[in-house]
Amino acid sequence: MASDPVSVPKRAEPSEFDKHIVKVLRHRVGKDERAAKQHDWYTASIYALRDEIIDRWISSTRRTYDEGGKRVYYLSMEFLIGRLLRDALSNIGMTSQMEKALAAHGLELSALEELEPDAALGNGGLGRLAACFMESLATLDIPAYGYGIRYVNGMFRQRIDDGWQVELPETWLAHGNPWEFERLESSYRIGFGGEVEAEGDGVIWSPAEEIEATAVDTPVVGWRGKRVNTLRLWTASALDPIRLDAFNAGDHIGALEEQVRADSLVRVLYPADSSPSGQELRLRQEYFFTSASIQDIVRRHVQYEGDIRTLPEKAAIQLNDTHPSVAVAELMRIFVDIHGLEFNEAWEICKQTISYTNHTLLPEALETWPLPLFERLLPRHMQIIYAINSRILREARKAGCSDEQIAAISLIDEGGERRVRMANLAFVGAHSVNGVAALHTELMKETVFADLHSLYPTRINNKTNGVTPRRWLQQCNPGLTKVIRDAIGDDFLDDAAKLSDLNALANDSTLGERIHEVKRSNKLALADYIKKTMGIRLDPDALFDVQIKRIHEYKRQLLNLIETVALYDQIRSHPERDWVPRVKIFGGKAASSYHNAKLVIKLANDIARRVNSDPSVGGLLKVVFVPNYNVSYAERIIPAADLSEQISTAGMEASGTGNMKFALNGALTIGTLDGANVEIKDHVGDENIVIFGLTAEEVAQKRANGYNPREIIEGSRELAQALSAIASGVFSPDDRNRYAGLIGGIYDHDWFMCAADFDGYAAAQRSVDARWEDKAGWRKAAIHNIANVGWFSSDRTISEYARDIWKVL
After folding, report:
1. Which helix (H) or strand (E) holds 206?
2. Keywords assigned by UniProt (predicted)?
3. Could you say which of 419, 446, 465 is where a domain stops?
4. Are residues 639 and 506 in the same domain?
5. pLDDT for 103-117, tens place per residue?
6. Of residues 710, 550, 454, the one with CA closest to residue 158
7. Which of 95, 410, 465, 512 is 20 to 30 A (C-alpha) from 318?
8. How many structural domains compose the chain?
């Protein structure tokens, strides 16, 4: 008897979006769907999604013109935007459509997302903040442009060879960038050097060299797709890319010299400035992108409004840190030299238009340039800065400032080599100067800008940083997002402050268990990834203790490593104790020329090699330094973290945003009262955060009164033993003196207070162990952290900028 025919399920009728992806695959990628590889589908998916975004982009732009509104222009050397596919899909509400369309062809969206490179447009918190701000500007329906540089290689790709950092070019543009649109009509000439000559009542600057800046635009989609704004990045080209006469004469390299000089401007983020040529390249980069941006802003205003004098009514220019400070002089040049405004009138319009965000109290980060270099590259701008300075100093003298105060206020540092103070230029050329955390803002008034603050006492204000909850909760932690939605509904998706509704459920054991299950699932996923990429096995039931950020001595990865060595010694010395299993995860890049930061990376890897291969610790301690930490790696690590290390020397971290991301994902913070930790503590409650160490005031007092770290070290057995082990070569048997200088610096001066804070930090870590053993208590504290950090949304931060500084809300 014949068997019944097998029923073969028919493929569902393709959706309209599925049809569109296939059409794009054929007509724009040039592949048949049966022959297409994953990268072809990835490109087609972005193009298809981009088509949906473009209509909203055009609509947003038209609406701005029709309404005649004011635009925000955000100038930043960095935009650490990360991958955009998942972000855009989520914000436009098309994730499910994309998943179904791809599934019909046997593809997984998550696999295609992994093909997207991280855009190498930033380094750390400054650049990631700029990216969060751009997303929040669109979410709040505020018309805005972000302006920066389209770096070809950007911040380096980090490889770890034998524990050492190796810098490699980040080739994120190797296969093109399907998100971007070149705007040939938005091109501007950028001049360097040359002569300034009088002509009638004005002057003419005739640059010796000119380079062309051309805009490349990327759409930035706000939550629920209400507005799409523009990230405009500049690329550079020579006016004459090749000298054919030289090429034909056999000088093939010299013939391309002008194009090579242009390429260098957009090749690398933060080229080392330890050499004169490095300093010149940095200054050229900053002026290049700033001049192109200012020219673009003025061109747009004149085209649509006509009168340059109304610029402050239609444009708010925000300088993200000191890098674009030359915007003050450039805007003045355009006002006076191009549009013929009288200097005093131009100065008032300039100040009304520009505002400035300061991100650091470190004097070395408040850029200054040798006066001869500045005057050689930008002779007209140097004249303008002198003219501004004369007005400011007369104003200061009239206000009764002392000679010492006037010297500090001056735009020219006369102590030693004469240098142009870019932070002072930004301060005097702006109507608003803001810090990025309450403590940071107060310290600005007392330290780096004390004298300028006394002259302009109403100019400094605070805008505590925030992070976008879309990327840093909804997209990177969908499991936790679902649990929260089930518990309190969907209101928090549109207003992160609504997370506070979780407070009433903090004692709910079922909710605590569900959040714990999500955390463990995230830890399993991270452990699996680290096993595949690094070959290190991690216990997902251990406490994941994480410090991921730029490697810098003030961020004190070294303090963490010293305590790790002390813990390692204690576990081996007291095996009878019930130690809490810990996984110490480090990640971050050191600046190419920062010797001590690179040593810290090597030390972390040396400690990891010793600890991870020692059977006597029995898996109770693992140390991992993840290579090439970036946005995508952060999206894996942060949802899996139990403990967030925010242990900078008090008074030195402006704000931090990693601290906010960790707390939003249910990690407890161990940290000093520094940056935004102070405000996080106020929001989550003393019992839900672990604070230790000197305050900013106590740090300043110790430095002023003569601090003796050697005395503290000799009085702390655990600290002395750990330092001795590191300095004597226990972890570096191949080079016993490798860390002698690094540790010697703690004995000699300890500027970053590692010795002073060690005992408090070690005690705080043991209190974390006790908290971890109390599972119900830990879960309750995690819920309170999630519930109470909604205030640290970048939507709240941007609404404050918009209301108080830009006047667009």
Report:
1. strand 202-206
2. Carbohydrate metabolism, Glycosyltransferase, Pyridoxal phosphate, Transferase
3. 465
4. yes
5. 999 999 999 999 999
6. 550
7. 410
8. 2
